[in-house]
Amino acid sequence: MYGKRQRQNDNMPPMFDIYRKPMFDDSIRKAEYRTYAPFIKSFNCSDIVEFSINQVDSFFAMSETLLCIKGSLEIHGAGDVKLANNVGAFLFDSCTYSESAREMETVRDPGIVSAVRAMTCYNQEDSNHMAIAGWNYPKDPILNVSDKSFNLQIPLKHIFSIFNDYSMITCGRQTIRLVRARNDNDCLYITEKNVSGTLSTTTAKINITSVELQVKHIFPNDDIKLNLMKSIQKDQPIVIPFRKWELHELPSITKGARHEVWAVKTSTSVE
Questions:
Q1: How many other CB atoms are found less than 10 A from the CB of residue 163?
Q2: Is residue 16 in some structural domain?
């Protein structure tokens, strides 16, 4: 009778399988976010902001890591100044992720690359979720009206393609290298006002007070950790497949020109 009843339960809908034993997933013992600061405290234009996490026996969920940026606007003039959409990514000229001293991905012009990917891949729910990251299209990014300050929390997967395709844990030395943009022109939207018949001249700059990295640490149970450490000690290779987005810009168009001549390069190889 027991074997017969077991076969009946296999075809039974889950909500009626009252004799099913409960299943517990204890593979993760603990998960927590830890905050890391860069080596330098200067976040001016063209500065290099680098984070280095060197903990041999730790495991990280880098796909869920957040880049936290705090700052404010310094405005001179009577015009209206707003943050541009995707302002967090436009703050940097290039972003590089390295693991165990090996460069995994470098994103140049991360503001444009992430904006194109977001416009083509994000739905409305994703855009609502990314509002705190400075992506609030078609609305303006969140800005404190009283003191013109902002607080951004940007998921690394918004900038790096590797964290969109590879969501496994990582280990070893993790390095994030950010190069600040040469200016903040792409980060601001300025609307001049007509004051006493004269169009005002407004200038603004972004002052960043802090840049932090909130990394999610994963603590597996002892059995899983022991198996992982054995494989790591054997230098077993880890295959990390991901799609990479590249930006190819055409030559800039001359202002006011009605005719342009661009050189076209040809190649016999298939790319």
A1: 22
A2: no
Name which of 146, 124, 148, 149 is nearest 135 in CA terms.
124
Distance in angstroms (rounded) separating the CA atoms of residues 102 and 110: 20
**What CA–CA distance (Å, rounded) separates 135 from 114?**
10
Contact indicator for 92, 179 with CB cutoff of 8 Å: yes
Give dist(CA 204, CA 143) in Å, integer.
Answer: 15
Collect all residues with Cβ–Cβ distance below 8 Å to 171 and sequence separation of at least 6. Answer: 56, 58, 59, 60, 228, 232
pLDDT tens column, 94-140:
999 999 888 999 999 999 999 988 888 888 888 888 888 988 877 77
Q: Domain containing 159 — which CATH number?
A: 2.70.9.10
Q: pLDDT tens for residues 191-227? A: 887 767 677 788 889 999 999 999 999 999 888 888 8
